[in-house]
Amino acid sequence: MLETLFDADLVTAVLALVGLAAAFGALLGFAGERFRVEGNPVVEKIDALLPQTQCGQCGYPGCRPYAEAIGEGEDINKCPPGGETTIAALADLLGREVKPLDGEAEATPRVAFIREEECIGCTKCIQACPVDAILGTARRMHTVIADECTGCDLCLEPCPVDCIEMLPRDTGRDAAPLPPGPGHRPVLPTPAWRTALIASDRPSSSTEARHG
Amino acid sequence: MAERFDFPGGITPPTRKARATRSPLCTPPLPRRVILPLAQHAGAPAEPCVEVGQRVRTGERIARASGLISAALHASITGRVAAIEDHPLPTADGRRGPCIVIEGEGEDDWLTLPPLDWRQAAETTLLERLDASGVVGLGGAAFPTQVKARIRELHAIDTVIVNAAECEPYISADDLTLRHFAADVLEGARLMARLAGAERILVGIEDDKPEARQALEVAREATLAEAVPVEIRAIATRYPSGGERQLIKRLLGREVPSGGLPADVGTHCHNPGTLRAALAAIRDGVPLVERVVTLTGEALARPGNVVARLGTPMGELLGFAGLDTQALHRLVMGGPMMGEALGELACPVVKATNCLIAATRSELPDPPPEQPCIRCGACEEACPASLLPQQLYWFARGREHDKAERFHLFDCIECGACSYVCPSHIPLEQYYRAAKQTIRAQRREAARADHARHRFEFRQARLAREQAEKEARRAARKRAAAPATRPPAGSDAQSAAPAADLRGLRIAHSAARAAERKAEKALARAAESGEADPATLEDLETQLATARENRQAAEARLQAARDVEEKPS
Asked: Is residue B415 marked as binding?
């Protein structure tokens, strides 16, 4: 029994394995040190899915901090500007359950608008804007660069004269709706001349319909 | 007829072209009032350069191109600018958009540019003239011709293709253009061949247009001495052989890659009407103010092709062709396959209006209700782009946009062949169009979000830099105020801590410098390639500014730490 234990073959095998383990351990240790990634790489991916309004409605100061928090286990349903689509995308990325939105969803994208005649030039909104989308200087009228505004609301609170309001953003061409599906006729525009024809049966409203 | 190359799929619907091709091209009376939409071309809308009340002459520029892809707009009649306001546009959704309205004087007072000789003039002069004349593709997409002609800067072109296939039913505008102006079209093709550096011209024409083909042959015989050879090739009538990709495949056997352009396979396709308009802009100095429009459909007493001024209200033009409003059931701009059903007769004729179909109920009946898909696969056999329409349909309905993209949704040319053959009457291409637009909107929003992120990062970097500089200044002031208090020499623990700190700051500083250089390089590369759009360049500039702020902040911190280091020693 003891002889087999001290068999030369066994010693060689054990030595070889120990040697391999040491070599790979060293290699892995070196690689871990040399190619260390600062920060969590998944945070980048989460950040890319967030709408970047920097509005802070999630309770974090900006989208990036919220992305970091999600990476550490925070709920994915705290982003009202992103809405259901963002939650679905995050759930997809992280393999978590889709949750209903915490807070009220925003119906349409919006931009801030400063009623310029009321502005007193206090620069408070400029300091609050997370994306430098407000132009102006002390005691001069301010204005919002609509193209850069993310619609985050952060400028509303600091304004001492309440001259800022949120307006719906022009999103360009509206997306064509999907057809209604099986069992329905595809939607075609109601021709104006046909309504005019029907309306012509009623003499009182015929001119109105033709021009309306 | 045996053809060497062919595209897959396709359909052969009844062409119904005979009614409009019986009479020759004619010119309706000048409209009293024209409505010219600012966005009647692909790209950014034009910017008005006239004021309300101003008198304009026919051919005078009333709106200039804005941005890289855009086209100028010209007055199509002589008169006064009555208004610049929103009017219904000729689109299926009945959208309204800004238009310039001109009240006419009843007479034409032309304002033309000096004629140019396209053989002699410099290429830049020719391109500038095309730009100034507002010439766009008249086949339907209305892409600015000047932008297309600049392709030489990026691609080598060997063949200019004249796309005279005109495969869609009803439309005969190109047919009539060729019958009347074949010589002009060929000369226009030679002009484009010169601009593109092509060595041959290939005319692809469907075999149901013998008169146009005859006219082309005559024009070709007359110019045999020209340097660039012209070849006229008749192809069997089949929809959609007038699609760029399908025509190139059929004529040359070359396949335009997915997501690519015809220029990627050395070809350039132009519609005959575009070529004629381009030649008129250069040879005669006449900007694009009129086009050939097919007026057809059973609700018209005198169907035919007319040379219509842009901006003419459609109702007026159709009235000229003898419209019976009682019988009119559906008004379609374009062909029955790809055209748009309009809801109003007051819409103006625009640069893309090649055909107006005033159809009766029996001619173009309302589409029957959509039935469930029975997975018969007929759509897949008809698809000229070798896609899987059925799969795309499921993905579009389920809003699985990423999967639809993986199945090459964007290679769909929306020809409608799949809907035509569908036994369940599913309006398939409407699903694809909706999916494409949703995806485009999502991309736009994603680009916006990216842009906002870069601006946010820049702001954070700027605030950090300001903070760092402020602290450095404060530390310097503090030291200046109390210079005498020196730490006792030889305290190792104290001097070691700043040293490690300094090393960290130095590393941070060189990392920031490297990031700045990287951002600089990225910006230079994008600017040099010339392909990046202004928004991308702006974003790269913001990123560079962010890197610069970071570097300055690191510098300030490092400098402050060095000062602390030097003082005690």
From this structure: yes
Instruction: Decide: B9 and B386 in contact? Cβ < 8 Å.
Output: yes
Q: Is B382 left (phi over 0), alpha (psi -120 to 50) or beta?
A: alpha
Mean pLDDT of chain B: 90
Q: Which CATH number fits domain A108-169: 3.40.50.620, 3.30.70.20, 3.40.190.170, 3.40.50.1100?
A: 3.30.70.20
8 Å CB contact of B458 and A132? yes
Last residue in a domain, options B310, B333, B356 = B333
pTM score, whole prediction: 0.82
B143-166 confidence digits (pLDDT tens)? 999 988 887 777 889 999 999 999
> Is B13 inside a domain boundary?
no
Instruction: Decide if the complex's ipTM is over 0.85.
Output: no
**Do B104 and B184 lie in a common domain?**
yes
Q: Which amino acid is at B229?
A: P
Structure tokens at B208: 């149901």
Q: Say if domain A41-94 classifies as CATH 1.10.15.40.
A: yes
Number of domains in chain B: 3
Digit-coded pLDDT (tens) for B104-117:
998 899 999 999 99
Q: Chain B contact for A38, CB < 8 A?
A: no
DSSP secondary structure letters along B176-241 = HHHHHHHHHHHHHHHHHHHHHT-SEEEEEEETT-HHHHHHHHHHHHHTTTSSS-EEEEEE---BTT
- CB proximity list for B464: less than 8 A, separation 6 or greater: B549, B550, B553
Which residue in chain B has the smallest CA separation from A89?
B402
